[in-house]
Specification:
The structure holds two protein chains of two kinds. Chain A is of the alpha/beta class. Chain A has 13 helices and five strands. A five-stranded parallel sheet of chain A has the order 2-1-3-4-5. The longest helix of chain A has 22 residues. Helix content of chain B is 70%, strand content 0%. Classes of the chains: A alpha/beta, B mainly alpha. Chains A and B meet through helix 1 and helix 9 of A and helix 18 and helix 19 of B.
Chain lengths: 316, 468
């Protein structure tokens, strides 16, 4: 009897969590559906674009409307599903700026965050991608509520916040353009961090699943007639010495770009890459660096990409 | 196959079901096969070691009595003790990262080469001593001995069970339905302690102990207190699962904890903490030593304390950190032995004593938890600096303990601390009500729900005492 009550309670609880999470405007999967941002340029990738590309700064320079869809610690499968969900509920943007770096192709850096897709497992594509990328999680999702229990530290607060948003009628995210300002961090032992991040005698190992979803992400965008740009933001110059096969990996990315017929733009040679004062970690800027980088990016867009193209209806 | 793994649940449901329907003689065989499968699931090295040491101890136990048996007896003791030391040496020299944050893959990890052997060989030592002292008769049936030695609910981390505690029970009848329910609830309580309390505290503890950060003293001390609480819930949770599982199979295992974090003195703490191991040490080391030197009165007890904790440190592991941990407790106990007062304190004094004991035990646990001697020294140095209190509490205390400074992480920490303090305060009452029929279904329902909503599933930690 107790077990029947428990089973039913878990089913009900699962529905409550589904609903709560879909109302949380601070979760991008939910916010892009509930309040679609009108966008010309979509910025996508892991924490580097999330914390380093500010649509507000970029739009000032370019006059277009951009949105930052990036999510911290995300790999390409994660990016793929977010792009899929964005396109499902929104008009396709004109441009997609997708972050790619040697770390992106190595499974030791960033990951597929299954928990972000838990409320959306009823979608066939989401279900398929989650099953492929996190089978250890997926195999238990048939048990009621287990799709939340498995990573429950990620949900309880978000569910409560979702209900708060629902009852208060909130329709926009805390960061409405998707950009999260970088953390204020006093960075002392940076060479120690390189040594930790890029362990001695280890080299980047390209992962076929990562590459597969990079291809799929590009192709999905191209099917919607979106112009895709792969880019790499500046890497602190000192860290390059700790990455033995970096050039090999860059060549790999270039090869993928050629295969998919999309440009790969490298900003690693910018002068700011040699200035530690702009960084909070190997790959991330502080706010001072963000302002400088967005200025460069904006000028780049103006001169190289936008040219004389007419502004889209989203333009401010 | 850890107790909190899904594989174990399937395995246990099968064994429990068969045990319930089989006749008495067949049950014994079932339990032996189940125990060997359970051990073999970890790896075949452990299974081989178990069969070898059981065969060896069984063989020599019949020959250790009388004057002629002394040599065989001491040889048997030596082999079993050396196995423990060798096991600890292998762990120490293997560079084992004991408190790794990574999820555990039990089936392939070479670090589990000899899982549970410290507990296992200690039981053989006790068995040989008891046979030699003629407290018990040597076992005649090897398979019964093998079952008693390898009985799976207590195999990995105890409770340390003596031969004479299990022998009369292995031929007993199948448990009644009410016993099954009580056993299940006890297991559930263990899951709650492990998954909702211990595993949720683990990241907070790791962020203080594992990164050599320049944390202020109060953060280090908070981490040490949280580790003491984590260790208690982790180990007592394991024991609840073991005792509950065994109860469901019709065999009672001894209790291992008696609410030790409510102890008003370190002496009382050791009467309540890991009781089966302490029972072993007091029976086989402390009492014989203090009896032998009884003419020295308090000094005899002091020698016995020092020797007991020296052996205890060696049993836990070879290294500076465990020895320092043992030294801390030697100092505490000797202080209480010479300066402690026997009068019963009032409520306020009792409260202060409990808090003081928690602080002292937690201080010792800095050594117990540190993965290296340099790590423990670094933490100590942070404890005894002028910047004991942080300038920015949110960044220097809250962020490390909450494993991040975001609202969600602070919410998780608050939820964890709520459950921790609730359980510490009402653990005895929960225990009692879990066995009262009126409240039992409600408690079962609530505990299952809380485990699902707040338990750690995807990033489960292995049991801390599995390393010993």
């Amino acid at each position: 009897m107790v077990f029947v009550v428990v089973w039913i309670s878990l089913l009900l609880l699962e529905d409550l969590y589904d609903f709560g999470l879909k109302q949380n405007q601070n979760i991008k999967m939910a916010s892009v559906k509930n309040s679609p941002p009108c966008t010309d340029l979509l910025v996508h990738g892991p924490c580097e674009p999330l914390w380093m590309i500010s649509p507000a700064l970029l739009d000032q320079q370019t006059g277009i409307s951009s949105y930052n869809l990036a999510l911290s610690h995300s790999d390409f499968a994660d990016n793929y599903l977010h792009l899929y969900y964005y396109l499902k509920y929104n008009k396709a943007p004109k441009y997609l700026l997708l972050y790619v770096t040697p770390e992106s192709l190595d499974k030791h850096y960033n990951t597929f965050n299954s928990y972000r897709f838990a409320p959306y497992l009823s979608d066939t594509l989401v279900n398929k991608v989650v099953r492929e990328n996190d089978p250890a999680y997926f195999k238990w999702t048939w048990i009621p509520f287990m799709k939340y229990a498995y990573y429950n530290n990620r949900f309880n607060f978000d569910v409560l916040q979702g209900y708060k948003h629902y009852f208060s009628g909130r329709k926009s995210a805390y960061y409405p353009d998707g950009f999260e300002p970088p953390t204020k961090r006093a960075w002392g032992n940076h060479t120690g961090e390189f040594a930790q991040l890029y362990k001695e005698n280890t080299v980047f190992k390209p992962d076929s699943l990562r590459e597969k979803y990079l291809h799929k992400t590009i192709r999905m965008a191209k099917e919607k007639k979106i112009r895709v740009f792969l880019y790499e933001s500046p890497v602190l110059y000192e860290a390059l010495a700790f990455q033995p096969n970096r050039d090999e990996m860059i060549d790999r990315i270039k090869k993928i770009a050629v295969e998919e017929q999309v440009p790969f733009i490298q900003f690693e040679k910018l002068a700011m890459a040699k200035e530690k004062r702009y960084f909070v970690s190997t790959l991330n800027f502080n706010m001072e660096g963000v302002i400088l980088f967005n200025d460069t990016l904006g000028r780049f867009f103006n001169s190289v990409i936008l040219g004389n193209e007419p502004l889209s209806p989203c333009a401010k | 196959m850890a107790f909190s793994s899904p594989q174990f649940l399937i395995f246990f449901i099968l064994v429990c079901g068969l045990n319930f329907v089989l006749k008495n003689s067949a049950r014994k065989h079932l339990l032996l096969i189940a125990s060997l499968v359970f051990i073999g699931w970890f790896n075949f090295y452990t299974l081989g070691a178990v069969i070898f040491f059981s065969g060896f101890t069984f063989f020599i136990a019949g020959r250790v009595t009388g004057d002629k048996g002394a040599f065989i007896f001491y040889s048997g003791l030596m082999v079993n003790c050396l196995a423990i030391v060798l096991f600890n040496y292998l762990l120490a020299s293997g560079g084992l990262v004991i408190f790794s944050l990574n999820a555990v893959d039990f089936s392939v990890s070479a670090l589990f080469l000899f899982v549970g052997l410290s507990f296992y060989n200690l039981q053989h030592v006790a068995y040989l001593v008891d046979v030699r002292k003629k407290r018990i008769l040597a076992e005649k049936n090897f398979f019964d001995f093998l079952l008693i030695s390898s009985y799976f609910p207590k195999f990995i981390s105890g409770p340390l069970t003596l031969y004479q505690q299990l022998r009369p029970q292995i031929n007993g009848p199948a448990p009644q339905q009410i016993i099954l329910v009580q056993g299940f609830n006890r297991m559930l309580l263990g899951f709650f302690k492990k998954m909702v309390l211990a595993d949720r505290l683990a990241p907070s503890v790791a962020s203080v102990f594992d990164y050599n950060d320049e944390l202020p003293g109060i953060t280090v001390m908070s981490g040490a207190i949280l580790f003491t609480i984590q260790l208690y819930f982790d180990f007592s949770g394991y024991c609840d699962m073991a005792i509950g599982a065994s109860k469901m199979l019709g065999i009672e295992l001894p209790e291992n904890f008696d609410f030790p974090l409510r102890a008003g003195s370190v002496t009382e703490f050791w009467r309540k903490w890991h009781r089966s191991l302490i029972h072993f040490f007091t029976t086989y080391i402390f009492y014989p030593v203090s009896f032998r030197y009884r003419r020295f009165k308090k000094q005899a007890a002091a020698i016995a304390v020092i020797l007991t904790f020296f052996v205890s440190a060696l049993w836990h592991g070879i290294g500076f950190t465990f020895m320092m941990w043992a030294c801390c407790h030697m100092v505490y106990l000797l202080f209480e032995l010479y300066f402690g007062r026997g009068s019963r304190p009032g409520k306020l004094r009792r409260f202060i004593s409990v808090a003081l004991v928690l602080l002292l035990v937690s201080f010792g646990n800095i050594f117990f938890r540190s993965t290296s001697s340099s790590g423990s020294m670094h933490l100590l140095s942070r404890l005894f600096t002028f910047d004991f209190l942080p300038e920015n509490w949110a960044v220097e205390l809250l962020a490390p303990i909450a494993v991040g400074g975001h609202q969600a992480e602070q919410f998780n920490l608050a939820a964890t601390l709520f459950f921790v303090f609730f359980t510490l305060l009402f653990e005895r009452k929960i225990f009692e009500h879990a066995n009262v029929s009126k409240f039992r279904p409600l408690i079962t329902f609530l505990v299952i729900l809380v485990i699902f909503v707040f338990g750690v599933f995807g990033n489960a930690q292995r049991f801390i005492y599995m390393q010993f």
